[in-house]
Amino acid sequence: MKSIKSNILHGHKLYLSNATANDAEFIISLRTDATKNKYLSQTNADIEEQRSWLLKYQGDPMQAYFIINEIGGEKIGTVRIYDIIGDSFCWGSWILKNNAPSFAAIESALIVYSYGLKLGFTQAHFDVRKGNDSVSRFHERFGATIISDNEIDYFYNISFDAINKSLNKYRKYLPDGIKIY
User: What span, in angstroms and rounded, lies between the C-alpha atoms of 60 and 54?
Assistant: First the structure.
């Protein structure tokens, strides 16, 4: 499979830009925010370590790490596509700033699913930390189902049909689909 990276995924009110080493400080600010990191894997607050990780990431064609931006240019979050297994992609590292617009969660998820389908995937998988009930409910409204769990996480899958139903159900958030650059 060729690289799953793109420079920009342009939606309706948001666009996702490929993360670079210059985004290290922003990413660390989100991942170390006490209100945001309760349900995230532990992150070191070292900006140089994050820069190094981002430089290494650039050479990995099977990951896409995006900064979520408002059309006006303000950075409001992150999301990552990785762990390709057959026709399924995993997405995670999904964090939005506290002051992100109310539509940002739905539109960014729709962009990720639209992009995944355009890459040829037919399903997605991801995990949600137990106790992160609002995120679990969000994914379940999209049609994701729990396929297993462990002490820490629920493991979800969302089918091609459920993705397409969600793209139609929430079309007002992404009325013209996405443009890929």
Answer: 10
pLDDT in tens, 5-17: 999 999 999 999 9
The tokens 């995670």 sit on which residue?
92
- What letter does residue 173 receive in the DSSP assignment? G
Give how far Cα 78 sits from Cα of 20, 123, 150, 169, 176, Å. Answer: 12, 21, 25, 24, 22
- Cα 80 to the chain's mean position, in Å? 5
Q: From the CB of residue 111, how many other CB atoms can be counted at a distance below 10 Å?
A: 24
Number of Cβ within 10 Å of residue 73's Cβ equals: 8
Q: Which residues, listed in sequence order, are joined to residue 15 by a DSSP beta bridge?
A: 10, 69
Q: How far apart are CA 95 and CA 31, in angstroms?
A: 8
> What backbone phi and psi angles, to 5 degrees, belong to 38?
-60, -35
Kindly report the pTM of this predicted structure.
Answer: 0.95
Cα separation, 122 vs 89, whole angstroms: 9
Contact in structure between 18 and 6 (CB atoms under 8 Å):
yes
> Encoding tokens for residue 30?
């989100």
